[in-house]
Amino acid sequence: MTEKLEKRKWCYVLQPSAYEMAPCACGNGDTQWSEFAGRLWCSRCDVDFIPAHNGIFDGPIPVATCDLLGIYFDRVNLETNEIEPFEIDPPSQT
């Protein structure tokens, strides 16, 4: 059976290695965001894969410390090709 993959609607502006996500099984740590949600792309193997772990996303994220280290959570909306800035406290909808 083939699994139906969901297309990614956004991705972070930084590469997966910046968030210390697991490399491909071949050892390639220079992976990219896959076009499919929950997966990364390995250019060596030409394969979409599910990482063994999600790096800093597997636990509590010290956002202020990440900012000091140059790790950002802004993301690219792949449908509009616009950058959506990360906001700790989103504006109120009232």
Description:
By secondary structure, the protein is mainly β. The protein has one domain. It contains one helix and six strands, in the order ββββαββ. Strands 1-5-6 form a three-stranded antiparallel sheet, with no helix packed on it. β5 and β6 (82-84) form a beta hairpin. The radius of gyration is 15 Å and the shape is globular. The mean pLDDT is 92.
Output the keywords:
single chain; 94 residues; mainly beta; three-stranded antiparallel beta sheet; 6 strands; 6% helix; 18% strand
Give the helix/strand layout.
Layout: E1 10-12, E2 32-33, E3 40-42, E4 47-49, H1 63-68, E5 75-77, E6 82-84
Count up the domains: 1
> Strand percentage, roughly?
15-25%
Give the biggest sheet: 3 strands, antiparallel
Order of helices and strands: EEEEHEE
Strand order of the largest sheet: 1-5-6
Q: Which geometry do the CA atoms define?
A: globular
Q: Please tally the β strands and state the result.
A: 6
* Rounded mean pLDDT score: 92
Poorly predicted segments: none
Measured distance between first and last alpha carbons: 47 Å
Number of helices: 1
Derived from helix and strand composition plus strand pairing, the structural class reads mainly beta
- Rg calc: 15 Å
Helix content: under 10%
